[in-house]
Design goal:
By secondary structure, this protein is mostly helical. It has 2 domains: 293 residues, no CATH class; 190 residues, no CATH class. It is 65% helix and 1% strand. It is built from 19 helices and 2 strands. A hairpin with a 2-residue loop joins β1 and β2. The chain starts with 51 loop residues before the first helix and ends with a helix.
Length: 534
Amino acid sequence: MDSRIPIYQDYPDYDMGEDEFAEPEFYVDQFYPPQEEYEELEDGGGLAPFSLAEILEHCIEPTVTDGLKHMSKILMWSLIFRISTQLMDIPPWTKHATSIVTGTILASNFFSESVFYLLVLITLSYPVLVILSSSRGPILALLVISFNIGCEKFVADPVSWHMVRGAIMICSMKIISVGFDLDESDRKKDSNPESKDLKSEPAPGDKKNRDKSAVRFRTEKKNGMKTEPETEKKELGNEGLISLPGWFEFAGYCLCPGTVVLGPWLPFQEYQNIFIKPRWNLNWFIKILFTVFFSFMFLTISTCWNPWLIPDSGWKWWLAYRDAMSFRASHYFVSFISEASAITAGFGASKTGGSTQWQVQVTQPHNIEVPRSLVEVVVSWNIPMHAWLKKYVFKPTRKTLGNGAALFATYAASTLLHGLSAQLAAVLFSLGLYTWVEHSFRGKVARIMNASLETRRDTENKFKHREGTTWVILVNLMFGFLTMFHLAYLGVMFNQTEESVTGYSWFHTLNKWKNLDFISHYIVGGVLLVNWVL
């Protein structure tokens, strides 16, 4: 398998309100073995002519072997980072330097010389944080997007950029989030004079602050107060970014080996917290094993099982479902591997029932494969990026320009972060229309019928006819099947072809939908008219 495969990605559950339909994330990169390895299996009929034993020998075994060969690098360097920085007490700057070194080595293994784009982006961004005293977030966003577009259009060759753009996106999200968090911290200090003294306090990860925490812990223990390390870590994470991080901290966060290749995006505070009273237990190891197992299960579904079960000679809508399902399964593979790498690096610890549990939730396949609505799909597709879009794009835009502008800005931001991709722009803006129409239409129907038919499950029992009512179940099931239909239509273009290594054109995108008669768009147009009448 090519060691420069274009892969990337992307917690505890988030509270989700009605505005969630406006923050989707639709990852476009896929993980597939080299096409030439299986050309002999695809002679007009997918993998169907082969027996189960042959599929196991010629597809599943080489796929898993090659996948482990590459993914083990991510887990290995994440583990080296954690052992080096969280097993012993060393100066804070050396922890961040270790993150920089291990993350750069790991990224070089996947992107070779293209890691240069990551390093330049980080180097250009930090002076903006230092020089500016306000509006860091918007200016960093402009800088990052300009850098990405400039590299994509004028500097990098298409194959190299397509390979590294996922890591660039994750790094861009980290940089922009630090800028906005610092702006928010300054606004809070200006509105609350008593909190201005926080500006001079050290970051949670440095030695002076740890000494203060230790003194406070001993004092509270002496006074009979019980303080758990994980509780303290959670409180630190909720304080927000209260001071400008040093260069080593900033670069260590951006290049942390647990998130540099596949993601997911995690806040700067989460990176700081992994160095505070780190925990090692059996649950940590078991969680990594199970997460890796699920990731490779989805990889084999994407690469082997789907083509075998639905050959190329099938009905065009079956083929559309197959291609879309293979794309989704490859996304689950990347998502679970990114979760495993983040946990291996020390992220995701929480105290539950007296024991430390580990969770960095990236995706929820059950809400996507058996969906209630498209709204639920876009929320569950990539939870960290959904949270990022909601916090840094949708909510600030809605405060000043309203829901409509916030919806457009959210999809535009997601598109620009992914790069200038025709197929992605078409899918994202279609999803924006689809989810808005669905949310509005089902909300009106729910109020007219006084039944729990909205895009999200009714947890407040505000309707007369609740979730367990037979006819309500049937209607929601019908909407679920319609969502599966839309997913097959929207995801059909994300199949593996020679063009996928450089990105798809508008012609490819529209031609795929033309082959399906644009029927999904026509259905949404019809629902939009009915919604207008209602």
